[in-house]
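User: two proteins, same treatment. go.

Assistant:
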Amino acid sequence: MRRGTGIGAIKNKNLAQARYKDKGSEIAEDQFSQMTKQMEVFKTNLEEFAAKHKDDIRKDPQFRLQFQEMCASIGVDPLASSKGFWAEMLGVGDFYYELGVQIVEVCLATSHRNGGLISLDELRDRVVASRGRTSQDISLDDMMRAIRKLRILGNGFTVLAVGNMQLVQSVPGELTMDHTNILQLAQKSGYVSHSQLLKDLKWEDERSHRALDFLVKEGMAWVDDQDSTERLYWFPSLFPAASAS
């Protein structure tokens, strides 16, 4: 009898668990359905908001940033395509693709001077100058979004955080932490020396020469032998932004 009672109890327990599982699945499906309906309402409201404020979104960089963040919060990417509702309504897709082309043009035009490494601030200043005074204003956030779109071109466009600066690398080739450390060290004066790397970074001779030689070879650093004490390595990308005119 005890064995039969035990088997019955197990069966009842399994049946209860099955019912709980079915009920749980039903609740989960209902919640998912409700969330889907809410998301559709959010997207509809977002489209209505975009239609109402499209001029502000196009012309005001700060307002455009807030709009982008609002879109991201519900999983909408108005930059996903240059065609469709968002492009037709706002032109934001076309705006960022056009900005991306202008970024490429400036990077190509300045690569002979900086080796394909330019500060984000200088890049923005030069792009703004190339667009003309009548064009809509662009922010650093706009620049970053357009650069991310350029990743489809391969590894040629990368944003590097160096100290308190952001540098845009527009040529293929990955910079190592050694190269980044040198750039960070050069931020104060725009140049470094071999002895400075040995002293401040505690590197050995071979490591220092290898990293500096790479940066010179890639055109990111210029050699200056005019100093009477030792060779200096200057970085055009860290020079104060020159006039973009």
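Protein 2:
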Amino acid sequence: MSILSKDFLWGGAIAANQSEGAYNKDGKGLSLVDLLPAGRERTEPLFNPAKGLNKNFTFYPSHESIDFYHHYEEDIKLFAEMGFKALRLSISWPRIFPNGDESEPNEKGLAFYDKVFKTLEYYNIEPIVTINHFDTPYYLAKNYGGWYNRKTVDFFVNYATVLFKRFSKYVKYWITHNEINMILHIPYIGGGLIIKDTDNKNQIMYQAAHHQLIASSLVTKIAKEINTSNQIGCMLAAGEVYPNTPHPDDVMAALSKNREQYIFIDIQARGEYPNYSKRMFEDLGVNIHKEVGDDEILKQYPVDYISFSYYSSRLESGDESINSNKSAGNAFASLKNPHLEASNWGWQIDPVGLRITMNQIYDRYQKPLFIVENGLGEIDEVDRDGNIHDSYRIKYLSEHINQMIEAVKDGVQLIGYTSWGCIDIVSAGSGEMKKRYGFIYVDRDNEGNGTLKRIRKDSFYWYKKVIQTNGDSLTY
């Protein structure tokens, strides 16, 4: 008999800015990602938000992506064929409010999500909706300074209120901000922040994060007023940071890095800034400006559950000369762990790290957890018969789900598991299509060529059996 509850939410996850395409259709405004080009591994300068499009780049992958906007019925039907109980997706903020500061929403944008939610309802798939998934309207970044401007809180509250009123009949589980701690690592995408070299970068990032935290609490309040069954979650880009050695300096360095990733979730879950934040901010030269009532807002409206992404653990030293050897397999730089293998993109593969991370988060907050991203980005090849044999992905997912189940045995309360990129989507980190996560292959390459044909991979059938058996069958 499965250790997981019978109503465990198995499924997959996608994001609007990486899947929908139709970037200028039906009144949609520009998002931050719409102005990020492909080929970011090149040596040319990246898109400069302050100056405009870099003319060395001609292809912007989010503009068409995998065209979920026009293929959502086909894709959701495939998810249902796998047996999905849930689909995590995001709503594109600039599809609802093109500039972000309008008073009234774009009806055509709302109508699109009406159709998506009705299709999910038809197949009995529970939507898990992220309100802001790296999708702040570009207009707010350019004209207001993004989340550094307190006015963005009001714009977000207006946007979220429209969503709650329109879609609460379909949606129970909401996530306010995707991977809120990523504002410290990718501030343009995470917070719409355009930071000059002369700026106090830490001050801008942490102040912007404070505004996101206030906005999260305010919309939690509104969500409950609109529908008491609404469940509001926060989201963390998680992965336990291990000390490089047992040396106390390494242990302290790892503790500090873990606090850096947990600080915003500490606030969203516990309702106040943690004790260690005072010294952290002093050391960073940060002074958070709070308006009257901010502390009360945070305290009164904490989140209901903790959602998180997990891809790998990290390794930290207290010796900066050793830390100079870090490599960035993801947005997080890490020392190489000699006990772990790595993916083609340098992500260190650590299934046991998922169990450790789950236990640490649950011990810290004692709130239900929800794994809303986990997966392996790899290069998939279509063979002569039109099949995709992705045994490496099956192995990765099997080992991680097994450790997830072990964490549940440890006593962790878990709502569900939605693997990242359940259908191939544009990579957020590199703008590529060849870095694929999905159970479903999409015929689209890095230059935007292809038919967009959907093809079931071997992992499609494997995951279908995992769901059918509620995690009892993980054989690969």
